[in-house]
Specification:
The longest helix is centred in the last third of the chain and has 19 residues. The chain has 2 domains: 56 residues, Dimethylsulfoxide Reductase, domain 2, CATH 3.40.228.10; 39 residues, no CATH class. It is globular, with a radius of gyration of 16 Å. It has 107 residues and is α/β, with parallel strands linked by helices. It has a 3-stranded parallel sheet. The mean pLDDT is 86. Helix content is 47%, strand content 12%. One of its GO terms (molecular function) is oxidoreductase activity.
Length: 107
């Protein structure tokens, strides 16, 4: 495993979020996967305090400020857990949680 996602999988995504990263400068060879995914209808959102080169071609640019990123991801995790674990048990999601996370020991 690496600390970055496999960029070839961007093409198979329906929603991509880039957070405080200028992909054009840091992952130049991989940016083409974003362009290919967008032609297939993938939504691309950039969370960055500055309007970078990547923000030029995204669907939505959110100029996030210091401290807001934690609140945003906590809210996103809340929605995911509520809809796929608490309100209704989605078998694939529950299996994923048991295999790859420590959530069953925390809740």
């Amino acid at each position: 495993q690496t600390d970055v996602c496999e960029s070839a999988d961007w093409y198979n995504s329906k929603f991509i979020v880039s957070m405080a990263s200028n992909l054009n400068m840091t992952r130049t060879p991989d940016v083409r996967f974003i362009a290919e995914a967008r032609t297939e209808g993938t939504k691309f959102v950039v969370l960055s305090p500055d309007f970078s080169q990547t923000a030029k071609y995204c669907d939505e640019w959110i100029p996030i400020q210091a401290g807001q990123d934690t609140a945003l991801w906590m809210a996103a995790n809340h929605v995911i857990l509520k809809e796929y674990y608490i309100d209704r048990q989605v078998p694939y999601f529950v299996d994923y949680l048991k295999r790859y996370t420590d959530l069953p020991f925390l809740v």
